[in-house]
Fold this protein.
Amino acid sequence: MSVSNRSARSDTVLDKEVAAVIRQSRDSNAALMRGDVATYRALVPYTDDFTLMSPFGGAPTHGVDIDDKKWEAMSRFFRNGTFDMEVVQSYGSPDMIVLATIERACVEVGGLPLQNWHLRVTLVYRREAGEWRLVHRHADPLVEDISREKSAALARGERQ
């Protein structure tokens, strides 16, 4: 995470900011898995140009498309979950933080029974008006290896 022209003091400040964003991400997603959208929203402000690439596939969602009705639906979509997050790698600069993580939840999702939902996730935060805002989230359920054939079938859009 170090850049050669930064001082040790600024590296320390940035390291603390990255650690704070990691905690914020962990705490907010734990709240979301419990269905606590209000806490999630309080902890993770989005940028105006936020994009979401959902683990369920499909077209990316943009922050401007997520209205109060969709937030309310989201509070019912995730229920009774527990959450942990492994940080695989973090990158920080004065205006951007990127986290590559593995999220491990045990949660009821979309009416399905309580089960493990493990995701590979990339989170991109940008500093705006002095606070870190989420600009991009990309998640996929490919924590476990799959065959080249299955990967190719998914890429072709084939359904099981």
Observations:
- The chain has one domain: 8-155.
- The two ends are 42 Å apart (CA to CA).
